[in-house]
Write a structure and sequence with these properties.
There is one protein chain. By secondary structure, the protein is mostly helical. It has a single domain, classed as 10k-s Protein, Hypothetical Protein A, Chain A (Orthogonal Bundle), CATH 1.10.890.40. Helices cover about 55% and strands about 0% of the residues. It is built from 5 helices and no strands. Helix 3 crosses helix 4 and helix 4 crosses helix 5. The radius of gyration is 19 Å and the shape is globular. The chain starts with a helix and ends in a 7-residue tail after the last helix.
């Protein structure tokens, strides 16, 4: 039994050294759309709604942190609610079904830029 486990490990271990695309994403727009459009009243509605909100707000926090580290202000107004962020993302995903194979984070970014474009610097 022990030799069988070692043989399996010897076969699987080299897979960890295979290259992965640098722009590969763990979560696609399809994944996010599925979470954000769970049917109200379904058994997974609450879980999927939290998953959607957590992903969208986490992505936006990451964008804002990057902007801040580059000494730039957020383009999203300070009074925008989480509900508005979610709605903008869902609307964008609904309007762009062909893009849903892309990174969910890229699509959240695109949704916020569409809804709240950055002002041009003077």
């Amino acid at each position: 039994m022990k030799s069988r486990k070692l043989a399996c490990l010897a076969l699987i271990a080299p897979l960890g050294f295979l290259p992965v695309a640098a722009d590969a994403s763990f979560y696609t727009g399809d994944d996010l759309y599925k979470a954000c459009s769970a049917e109200r009243g379904s058994k997974e509605y609450v879980e999927k709604t939290y998953e959607c909100i957590a992903y969208v707000t986490g992505a936006i926090d990451a964008f804002n942190t990057t902007r801040k580290s580059n000494k730039l202000n957020s383009c999203i107004p300070g009074d925008v609610t989480i509900s508005q962020l979610r709605a903008a993302t869902v609307d964008y995903l609904q309007d762009n079904p062909k893009s849903r194979k892309e990174s969910a984070a890229d699509l959240v970014f695109a949704a916020t830029r569409k809804e709240w474009p950055c002002r041009k610097r003077k």
